[in-house]
């Protein structure tokens, strides 16, 4: 077992030495920020380390690293978009009722968790759930908007609620 660990460590080291510069450059071009690029490049290699699959089976290391880094980059952009939307909403509030930086951080983290939960739902289920919860539409109105029967909207809502409850239980 220790020998397998040493071989894996050597493979990761070789992958890092051979491709870290390229990955960092690609991320720097995408982000326009060398510090954030370095962070995401490092996060990419942390993901590689956490994967259980055999690194010796990787045929195209750059494509493999690119896929991981691209996912991290999408998450980064999504997080920035959510944070900015929240900060824009906070900026519209009078200064006297503006939340503290700690409260803002908690709200942003919660929004990111909700976004992650919603992204795991099928498109029509997510859309029906959002139309109900954010816009207050009736099931009949949602059915017209989504292009399904009212009975299907009920199924979508049950699916979304079950998904929410499952996530709440997982966190407990």
UniProtKB/TrEMBL annotation:
<protein>
    <submittedName>
        <fullName>RNA polymerase subunit sigma</fullName>
    </submittedName>
</protein>
<dbReference type="InterPro" id="IPR036388">
    <property type="entry name" value="WH-like_DNA-bd_sf"/>
</dbReference>
<dbReference type="Pfam" id="PF08281">
    <property type="entry name" value="Sigma70_r4_2"/>
</dbReference>
<dbReference type="InterPro" id="IPR013249">
    <property type="entry name" value="RNA_pol_sigma70_r4_t2"/>
</dbReference>
<dbReference type="InterPro" id="IPR039425">
    <property type="entry name" value="RNA_pol_sigma-70-like"/>
</dbReference>
<dbReference type="InterPro" id="IPR014284">
    <property type="entry name" value="RNA_pol_sigma-70_dom"/>
</dbReference>
<keyword id="KW-0805">Transcription regulation</keyword>
<dbReference type="GO" id="GO:0003677">
    <property type="term" value="F:DNA binding"/>
</dbReference>
<keyword id="KW-0731">Sigma factor</keyword>
<comment type="similarity">
    <text>Belongs to the sigma-70 factor family. ECF subfamily.</text>
</comment>
<dbReference type="Pfam" id="PF04542">
    <property type="entry name" value="Sigma70_r2"/>
</dbReference>
<dbReference type="InterPro" id="IPR013325">
    <property type="entry name" value="RNA_pol_sigma_r2"/>
</dbReference>
<dbReference type="InterPro" id="IPR013324">
    <property type="entry name" value="RNA_pol_sigma_r3/r4-like"/>
</dbReference>
<keyword id="KW-0804">Transcription</keyword>
<dbReference type="InterPro" id="IPR007627">
    <property type="entry name" value="RNA_pol_sigma70_r2"/>
</dbReference>
<dbReference type="GO" id="GO:0006352">
    <property type="term" value="P:DNA-templated transcription initiation"/>
</dbReference>
<dbReference type="GO" id="GO:0016987">
    <property type="term" value="F:sigma factor activity"/>
</dbReference>
<feature type="domain" description="RNA polymerase sigma factor 70 region 4 type 2">
    <location>
        <begin position="112"/>
        <end position="164"/>
    </location>
</feature>
<feature type="domain" description="RNA polymerase sigma-70 region 2">
    <location>
        <begin position="15"/>
        <end position="81"/>
    </location>
</feature>
């Amino acid at each position: 077992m220790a020998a397998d660990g040493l071989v894996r460590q050597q493979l990761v080291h070789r992958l890092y030495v051979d491709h870290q510069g390229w990955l960092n450059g690609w991320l720097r071009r995408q982000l326009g920020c060398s510090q954030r690029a370095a962070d995401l490049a490092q996060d990419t290699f942390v993901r590689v380390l956490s994967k259980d699959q055999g690194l010796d089976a990787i045929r195209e290391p750059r494509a493999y690293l690119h896929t991981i880094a691209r996912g991290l980059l999408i998450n980064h952009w999504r997080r920035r978009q959510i944070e900015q939307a929240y900060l824009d909403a906070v900026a519209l509030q009078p200064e006297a009722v503006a939340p503290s930086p700690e409260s803002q951080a908690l709200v942003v983290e919660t929004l990111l968790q909700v976004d992650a939960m919603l992204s795991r739902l099928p498109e029509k289920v997510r859309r029906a759930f959002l139309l109900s919860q954010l816009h207050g539409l009736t099931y009949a109105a949602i059915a017209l908007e989504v292009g399904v029967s009212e009975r299907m909207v009920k199924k979508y809502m049950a699916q979304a609620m079950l998904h929410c409850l499952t996530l709440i239980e997982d966190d407990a």
